[in-house]
Structure formats: C-alpha cells, structure tokens
Specification:
25% helix; 2 domains; 3 helices; 142 residues; 5-stranded antiparallel sheet
C-alpha cells in the first residue's frame, strides 16, 4: 500500500492548524514543535527527515499526464498537465492543456481565448505574477 504524503506547504499548514488548536486548549507550542509533531504523525522521526523526503516531490497531479484544477486570471479551469519541470525545490514550470478555453482579456470590446497556458507555480500552488488587483495569475487547487 502506498501512503500519500502531504507537500511541504500542506505539512506547514497542518502545523499552523495544530498550533492554533493546542493554543485554544491552553497548551501553546512553538512552530518548530508543531512541525516535529506533524512529521511524526506521518511516520518520520523529525521534521528534517520528513522535509528531505518530500521537498522534491511534486504535489498530486503536478506531473505530465496529471489532472489539475484551479483559477487562471480569476476564471476556474480543469486541465491536463502536458509538461512539468522542477525549477528548484517546490517550484514547477507546468504546461496546462485546459479542458475549456478561458478568456484572458477583461474588456467587453474584444476577447482572446486561451486553451494552453505555461505557468510557474510555487509550493503554495500559485504564481508569483499577480494581476493589478493583487491576485496571482494562477492558483492551483492542492
């Protein structure tokens, strides 16, 4: 049986949730202690061992042939990953073939439909590039 490990970003989110829950119960712990507990819950002796195993693994679906969902320029999409390259730990360049084309222009006077997009996304599933209203260009569901 294969166990599915969370990504580093997901494990850090689990640690934040654990800290919040324990703090609400009157047992505050440090973020480092929370990371250690999360790693142990997933069968590792400590955070360093967990991080060494998971840091280079892409999130589920972030490989060629995988399926992803998310938002591109605030529009929902479903896509197949046609190409995936790791740029550095946690950061991937993906080529996505969208099931339905999205309009990349926000003007009423004309449209530009796009069916394939190339994106660079980080461990939290979104791009560094942002629209003028501050939203990431791409936000993948993890």
């Amino acid at each position: 049986m294969t166990r599915v490990l969370p990504t580093v970003a997901q494990a850090k989110q689990q640690a934040r949730q654990l800290r919040h829950a324990l703090s609400a119960q009157g047992t505050p712990i440090s973020h480092a202690e929370a990371l250690e507990q999360v790693a142990q819950r997933h069968g590792f002796r400590d955070w360093n061992a967990f991080h060494a195993v998971t840091r280079d693994q892409p999130p589920k679906g972030w490989t060629a042939g995988g399926r992803v969902t998310g938002r591109y320029l605030s529009q929902p999409f479903v896509a197949m990953v046609t190409s995936a390259d790791q740029l550095r730990p946690g950061w991937y360049r993906l080529v996505l073939d969208l099931d339905e084309a999205v309009d990349v222009v926000r003007f009423d006077s004309f449209s530009n439909l796009r069916k394939q997009i190339r994106v660079v996304v980080g461990p939290d599933g979104h791009s560094k590039e942002r629209t003028t209203d501050g939203e990431p260009h791409v936000r993948l569901d993890l």
